Amino acid sequence: MHPIVHHPVVTKLLELFENADFSTQLASELASFGQRDEGVCLRIDAVICAKPNITVDDDKSLPLGWLSMEKDRYSTITPNHAAFLNLAATSSSDPYARCGGSGTCPSASRNELGNPRHKTVSGLRPSKSSAIAVVTEDSGSDSDTNTGVRLRPSNVRIEPSFRQLHSDTRFPQRKRPTKSTTAPTLQPSTIDKLVSGIWRQVHSPVNLSVSFPDRRTEFSLRTGVSQAVFQEINGLCKKYYDQSRSSRALEMVVQAYWVECYEARIASIRLDCPTYTNAEARMAALKEACNTLGWQEKELRNRMAVWRGYKEIKDSGGWASLIFAGSGVYRFCKYRIGFDNGLTTRLRHTAFSLEVAADTLHPGWRDLLHVINQNESCRYSGHPHEWVTVDTGPALPLKSTYSHLALSNGFNYEFVDDCMIDREVFGEDDPRRGLGIDPGICQTCKERQSDDGISNHCSCFPSLFGGVRHPPPVQLYHTASGKNNGVIARCPFERGTAIAEFVGLVTYGIDGLDVMIGGTQERPYQIFQGQKGNFTRFINHSCRPNSQFQRFYWRGIERILVVSRGVSAGSEITVNYSDSYWRKLQKNCLCGEPGCRFAHRIETNAASLPSLQEA
Ligand SMILES: C[S@@+](CC[C@H](N)C(=O)[O-])C[C@H]1O[C@@H](n2cnc3c(N)ncnc32)[C@H](O)[C@@H]1O
Predict the structure, then answer these.
(1) Which three-class secondary structure state does DSSP give residue 527?
(2) CB neighbours (10 Å) of residue 279?
(3) 134, 265, 327, 519: which is deepest, by most CB within 10 A?
(4) Backbone angles phi, psi at 540, to 5 degrees
(5) What is the pTM for the complete model shown?
(6) CB under 6 Å to ligand 1: residues?
(7) Alpha-carbon gap, residue 151 to 360, rounded angstroms
């Protein structure tokens, strides 16, 4: 056994290297380095010695792990499991001893036992559909004689012509929380993280509205920036430097704008002093700024590099992308992480969609632009999902995306957050209420359920029940595949987490239109989203879905949820409508999956026919 393996600091470091999260985060940190060294690895050793610069024999140091520096594997940290398990690491069995001499890095091809490394591939197993409520002619009566409420029309045999959606009762397995909590969290700095951060912020309740008592001098960047105006902009920069959240957004707005003013000031100086070279004019503008800001020229130059990054983000993704970028944006701009790897293209793609989210969820966000005298008005009003986002241009009003159907009253859909009970059918009864179950206890985790976050102990679907609900980070988008609209995830949804509740009119007796079937054989109900509901009405089918419908009881009431099977940001949210649904639909499936089961079923170009629901 190596003598220092039990030293508490060394033990901690070994634990750290064993933690898969640490490895992943390190991977993401290192991913931005372009350089690769074939056939070598970096060994990370622990040595306890009197002075840091002492030379140490190999047998005095304990390898903690190594990083392969080969192409594409650069970032994998492979812990020294033998040390972790307190096994004696003899030089003959020591896996890292092979590294360097032979040019073979153990992390690249072998595991710690020297066996070839096999990639573990996880797979989603398609779930068998659970038992569903099917109504037959002889099942149940027409009315409840006690209440006089019509429960189900007995003369309707609905099953043969329904386009029914069913839900599952089994839960996609959630990722197990990692055992060790000792690893420090290195924040991966990837483009995905920045973009995801922007979307998360825009869907959070952050308050950005602010009022400005003092109006600034009117001027135009195009006609030039005088010394007095530039001094004023510099004053603003000074004022908003290093302040809190909404001031942080303000600060970035001012700084991105400062870069524009600085360029305009240089142009003005060159006009005023035609003998100046460009470099001289830049120096003059810089000096003017330093005078007001009270900074050294070097200091300002360093900061200016970050401010230029802010301006680039704003130029590509619009002001909203800068304003809703999290605190990580500073690091992004300081080290220019990912700027050359398509960050600006990514932002340009989402600029319009982000504006929809910002305008509808934070109507006051544009007030921040008053600080730089830009009085932009809101472009998108109403509910966030009343707009259909398009990759290449401004979002379209939802109604307009159904104009091809030439509906007599146009397309009308009211967005609501909760199900409504059809009182004509159910009276005061709620058919979703589970009989004989304790409404206070979760049927799944057996913990106490409460709408009050403090008393609630059920954490099955915390984004929907028992806590504060935030708007889901999803948008309607126009599909390119001919399915008309669909739902796109703007942030990732981890496997097993809820995306939304399937919300609509809780009714019974609808025939020939899309309905969700709920309840039991004795007490069935349908959820109909024909006129009212939420965005789940726009979720398309896929033969390889990334989400599923699932039943869940919240405080004794059955809810149908859309639960993720692992949805990545930017992907379409899809479910399996079921074989029986497709059997009754005169269309071909356009999911585009290699194993699609319902493509090319219909000879005519039936895919372009309106669906019954659309009609
Ligand atoms: C609940 S709506 C989904 C939203 C719909 N795409 C829209 O724009 O309103 C269901 C209808 O969408 C269409 N749809 C959904 N998934 C589809 C797929 N994979 N292929 C073709 N059409 C699909 C069918 O017309 C289906 O009847």
Answers:
(1) strand
(2) 9
(3) 265
(4) -85, 170
(5) 0.68
(6) 483-486, 514, 537-538, 540-542, 585, 587, 589-591, 611, 613-614
(7) 40
Residue whose Cα lies nearest atom 3 of ligand 1: it is 538
DSSP 385: G
**Concatenated DSSP letters for 69-87?**
-STTTTT-EEE-HHHHTT-
Kindly report, residue by residue over 554-590, the tens digit of the pLDDT.
999 999 999 999 999 999 999 999 999 998 888 999 9
ipTM for this prediction: 1.00
- What's the CA dihedral at 478, 480, 481, 484 to 10 degrees? 20
The closest residue, in CA terms, to atom 24 on ligand 1 is 611
Pair of tokens at residue 65: 């792990």
Query: Tens digits of per-residue pLDDT, 402-430?
Result: 999 999 999 999 999 999 999 999 999 99
| Cβ-proximal residues to 594 (8 Å cutoff; 6+ apart), any chain | none
For residue 192, give the 3-state DSSP assignment: helix
CA of 483 to the centre of ligand 1 (A): 5
Distance between CA atoms of residues 429 and 204, nearest Å: 36
160 pLDDT tier (thresholds 50, 70, 90): very low
For residue 514, the model assigns a pLDDT of 94
Q: Tokens for 437? A: 């179950």
